[in-house]
Every structure is written in structure tokens, then in C-alpha cells.
Amino acid sequence: MLRATLKSLLARKLRLTLSTLAVVLSVMFVSGSLVLTDTLGRTFDNLFANIYTYTDVQAWAKSPIDQQGGGGSQNSTPFPASTVDRVAKLDGVAKATGQVFLNGAMPIGHNNKVVVNQTGQQFGANWTGEDELVKLAEGHAPQTDDEIVVNKGLAEAANVKVGDSMDVITRDHQRASYKIVGFMQYTGGRNSMAGESTVFFTTAKAQTAMLGTEGAYNVIDVRAAPGVSDEKLRDTVRAELGDGFVVKTGKELSDESSQAIKNILKYFNYVLLGFGAVALLVGVFLILNTFSIIVAQRTRELALLRAMGAARGQVLRSVLLEALIIGIVGSIFGFLVGLGLGALGAYLFVGLADGAQVAGLGFPISAIIASFVIGIGVTTIAALMPAVKASRVAPIAAMRESAAPDRPLTKLTISGAIVTALSAGALAWGLAGAGGGTLALVFGGVLGLLIGVALLTPVISKPLVAALGAVLSWSVPGKLGRRNSARNPRRTAITAGAVMIGIAIVTAISTIFTSLSTALGDTVSKDLQADVVVLGQQTNEVPPVVTPQELAKIEALPQAKTVAAITADVVKINGEQAYVLSYLDPAAGTATLKVTADQGRIDKLDAGEFMTDKKTAENRKLKLGDTIQVTFSKGQQKTLKLTGITSDSAIGNGIVLSYADAKEGFAFSDPWQVFLSLKDGSSPEQAKAAVNDILKDNPQVQAYTKDEYVKTNQQGFTVALVIVQVLLLIALAISVLGVINTLLLSVIERTRELGMLRAVGLRRGQTWLMVTTESIVITVFGTLLGLVVGVGLGAAIVTALKDVLGFGAVTLPWGLMTLYFVASVFVGGVAGLIPSVRAVRLNVLGAIAYE
């Protein structure tokens, strides 16, 4: 029996190849995502290890507000130069260097735009001389406050040379012109560490421009004396500086920085694995269909084995062995293809950050295990039902010319209805937030609905396939193609089900994003009482702002009626971190954002006062006259009194502090956004042009009309939707290959039938049209089913989360849905191309004699 199984497998090489391809496609996405994240993780381990190779110990002052990132480069709290002197005198310290090294020095290019990079790191630093890490590649060190040295990566990006001038906007939001007197590189001739830009000033200039104070630093770099370990030096410095400072070794900084990136990659991996799960689900349908057709083709062969004495268990084990072999081979190739895709993704990802180098490609155990567990497991499970069916073939079937007719769909339909009903209930329960495991209920409900609808697809396919086929039945080949697609409802349903899943998920996400985008646009259009909006593109952790001088000029414009300026920051409220706003003029701010008073006064805020909306007050259990304890970014602590509660607003919610307190405590108190209401008869386009003329020397911010501002707010949803669609193309590609696979195997199965049709006069072109019609009918049927299911899922989620996420009415993505439908016709034609070519090339006499 083993020899018979192996000979049967090797005798049908095309069938073996197609079956293995189904497994490869199912495995490669999962293995590729695991390889990608493993490679990127080790790459960033190496990167940060290189950055901190020559760092023994670093120290910096604790910030009043928790700040993200590793090292003092993310901490803006200054401390006096005398602190460096104290550390330098400690036992075990060879050298202590005070440094200014902080994100927020924005270089301006020849086009008067900020020279951005992919890392969001635009450092400003004081030049402390060359060392093991930093080398001068050209020129000399900055000697006066109008001279700078830049890293060579920035020089190449900005296309500048030594002796050129470059404008730089520093953390104090002052723009000044500097002369480039030198280029620096890191050890090993690297132009940057990871694609960042760094501008080196004199120490005095770096202190005032980056820290806003003289004679201060934000980092101490400490070198150990010979024979002193980094850990001992760290403990010595920590004991001297006390609890107000953070002190870490270079290895600790490297590990923490790398871990911060890995935490981001972890969620990125979850997303990729989510799409891998979709690909797997589609792959299950593909493998199930493949083995179902294989068993149908081998009915007489299996019956002969039974007639020769093979037991049912032997036939069952024979088919499962075939599945096991295919699963193992498919897992190997799936892992290898995933390995290649992961490596390619890593190189593309790291290529965005000039200076970083991909770590050697590894073979993560998780990817190897996942590949074989998924490949073998999915193949075996998918082949189990066809294997059981094969074991039930009666010996008498060896005498029949064809397989037995398809079984009734009653049991399958009842099962599908039960699964669909239970899954719909789980989804509804999860979206309602009832009980625990809400997320599991939602995902389980969505998965169950897809499976339930797939089980119902055979009974749905009969009328729909007949209707779709009727549209293409203007000729005899078209009628034959329609009848072929309706001949075996199970097979058609499984093939279309694979298409349905990909389309359903894309459509559901498109519906959610379109509804949210439309709701946001409608809300802003309705509630924002402004004709022109000024905002910026943030390129690092420092927000783009409008300077006081620019704001005064905007307020003085003849067409200006009301000018509302808003700033924001992160503070601690009663010990908990929170995001707060501040209006420079509360009366103008509340009017522009269409905020009305519910209790108290909202048109004025004095120092020590704040206001908030009704919902926030309820959540924080605040009433008029209550107080909160606020810790600001600059370290001040104040008790603020609630003097006004506003009605709930879609765009004006949150805690609002007085500008007097914001100016004193916010890290960046200048306005982040400016809203301009115009006098009657004024042109928004002309006002926008006038504002942009005022802002011509501020490349970080730009004026937009109200309509442009709405579209800007919606861009994030558009970008996210594009990313999702690109990733889900993998699942759709698998489903399309499933159509090709099914039709190829179907052509093999109907070889004799096709020979007979050719013999009675069906021409080659008509044969091609017949197979292509079948392909289009199946693909369009799956697409229509996916559109309906996707819209239903998307509408259910939008409706359930209406109050939570601020959705409006359900908005259907008609344009995308039309595109999916039109594309399905094209894809169906392409998918039918290979099977139709094989059908056309059949030798008529050989096909008639085919067994």
C-alpha cells in the first residue's frame, strides 16, 4: 500500500506540484513575518550596540514628565555645569564630559523645506572634539556661534559642501543661518548611525539654542578609569547624583533602546501574523478543494484497491500519507520562500535608515516550527474530510465510468446555518462589550462568520451561479462554462469561498475606514468655525509652531475676523499623565471650535484656572470649583481650579488650561495650530495666500483652507487603508491561484469529456471561452459574496462602535467596491488562462482514451 501511494503520487507530477504550491503559499506569509521581525530585532541589537560601544556610563536629570526612548538624547531637563565637575572628581572617573545632545535641530534645505529623514531624529549637539566614535571627515570644529559641523549623511541629503551656509531651526524655534565648517563621520566611515541628522554647534550656542539656558547640559558622558568596571562606576555616579538623576551603563542603554524598537516590531509582527492567518484560512480552502478533486479523480483507482483487498483504514492512511508528504515538502519550500521574503523586507526596511546594516539572516526556531506545524497540520486537517470520503469508496465503483453524483447539501447547509448564527451572536456580544474576552469574541465571531458563510456557499451558489452564468451564456461555450461551474456546488463553493474571504475582509476594513473618515470630515466641516487653518508637519518630537511675531501679523490681516490659537502639552494630573490644551484667547477658541458653556465661565481663563467638557468632568468626577494638581513639563507644580464646564463637542473636548500657566510650564508654549475666521465676503484662497506669505520663513507650518484641512485629517485613514489592501493582496493572490489550481485539476478530471467535445466540433477558441467563462463565473461569485459579507461585517462594527469611536452613519466605499468587482472579472479571465491553454492543447484522440 505504501508503494502504491508513492507511485500514485509521483505518477501525477502536476497534481503534486499544485498541491504543494497551495501549502507553500499558506506557509510563506507566517514564516516570512517571523523571519522579518527576528532579523530586524537582531539588526537593531547590533545598531544600538555599535552606538554605545564607546559609552561606559551616561547620566541625565529625571524629567517631571515621563519621556520615551533610551539615553539622555530624549531628555531635555538641563542641569548646571557644576554637576559635571562634581562627577569628574569622583573616584574611578577618568573623564566626565558635559554634553548637549537633543532632538529638535531642523536643517533647512535649498528648497526652503526641512530636510527630513525616516528616523524622526534631528539632533542638535555641542561639539566636544573627536573621540573613538566621532571623527572629522572634512574641515574643522565650530569656533564661533555662527559655525556648525554636520554629519556627512545630512550633507549628502541636503546637497551641501564645506563652506556653504545652512539655516537651522532649533528647539527655541528660532531660525538662523550658519556656515558649515566641517563634516563628521562615525567610526568605520559611517555617514550616520541609522539615518539621523546631527548638527554640532559650539557649546555656548548649543546650550542657548537647544536647552534655552546658558552654562547647562542635559547629558554627562562618564569614562571609567583603568580597572574600574562600568557597573561599579555607575553605582558611584548614582550615589553622588542621587534620585534626581538617571545613571546607566552603555550596555543598559543599548539593551533598553533595542527593546523599545522591538516592542514596536512586536505589534508590527502581530499585524503581519494577522494577515498570515487570513492567508492560512484561504489556504485551507485551497488545500481542501485540491484534495477533494484528487479523491474524485482517483475514485476508480481507490475502488480497485478496495476490490484487491485494501481495507478502509489503509485507504484512509494512504490519502493522509499523501497529504503528509505534500505538507512536509510544502513546509520546506514555504519556509524557504518566507525566508527570502523576510530577508527582502528587512533590507528594504533598514534601507530607509542610511547607516544601519542588516544583521546576518538567521533561521529563527519559531519560524521553522511554525512553518512545519502549520504546513503539515493545515494540509492534514484539510485532507482529512476527502480522506474519509476516499475510504468510503465501494469496490463496485471500479466498474463505473464516473464517480458517484455529489451528495445532498442538507447537512452542510444546516451546519453552516448553525455556525453562522452562533458566530453572529458572538460578534454581537463582543461588540456590545458584554462580559470578558471582548476582543476574542469579536475575532472569533468574524472568523466563525466567514466559515459559516463558506459552509452555506454551496446552497447559495446554485441560484447565483446560474444567474451569473446566464449573463455570459450568449454562446454554446458560455453555456457549457456556466453548467460546468454549477455542476459541483461543493467544489465551486470552496473555490469561491477562498476569494470571498479576502474580498470580505478588505471590504469590511474599507467600510470601517470610509465611515470613520466621512464622520471625521462631516464633524470638522460642521463644528469648525474657521475658514483658514494653520498647522505643521511634525518631523521630530518638537512640534512645529507659529511664532508670536507671525501670529501678530496674522491677527493684523484685514480679512481676519477671529483668530484662535491653540497649544498643547503632556502634563501629570493628580499623578497621572494626560494631554491638555490651552487657548491663547479662550473666547476665540471656544467660538471657533463651536464649544458652548454648560456650567460656569468658558470665555476667560486666569492663571490657576481650567475648564473641561462635560464628559471629561464626569469621567474624572469633577464638578465646578474642584481642583486638580498639575505637574508641568518644566517641573512646576500648581493647583488649578475648575471654573467652566463645556457642552460635549466632537473636536473641542479635553482639559483646557490658561495660557498664563501654559506659557510658564509647557515645553513649547507657542501655538501649534491657528484657526482663522474671515469677515463676510473675504476669499479663503486669498487669505490662505496672505497667511502663507507671512509664514514664508517658517518651513514647518502651512495654511490650508477648511476643505483642505478636512482632507488632511482624512489622509491617515487613506494611507492605512492602502497598507491594509496591499498586505491583503497576498490572500487574494492565494485565492486566485486557488481558482487556477481548481480549474487545472478540473481540466485533468474532464480530459475525456473535453476530448469528446472537441471530437463533436468544439473549436479551440470555443474551448478556451468555455473554461474562461467557468473561471470568471467562480471568481465573480466569490467577489459578490465577499462584498456582501464584508459590507455586513463592516456595518455591524461601525454601528456597534458608533459611540466609542465617534462614527456617524455607515458609509459604503462604493468606488472601491466597484473596483473590486471589475477587477474580479479581469482576474477571473487571467486565472482561466493557464487551464484553458491546457484544455485547448489536449490531443483529441488521446483525451478520448484517457482514464
From TrEMBL:
Residues 18-239, 492-693 form the MacB-like periplasmic core domain. Keywords: Cell membrane, Membrane, Transmembrane, Transmembrane helix. It comes from the Bacteria. InterPro entries: ABC3_permease_C, MacB_PCD, Macrolide_Exporter_MacB. Residues 275-393, 726-843 form the ABC3 transporter permease C-terminal domain. It is a multi-pass membrane protein. It is found in: Cell membrane. The chain crosses the membrane at residues 267-295, 316-349, 361-388, 409-432, 438-471, 492-513, 719-747, 768-801, 813-834. Belongs to the ABC-4 integral membrane protein family. This is FtsX-like permease family protein. It comes from Dactylosporangium salmoneum.
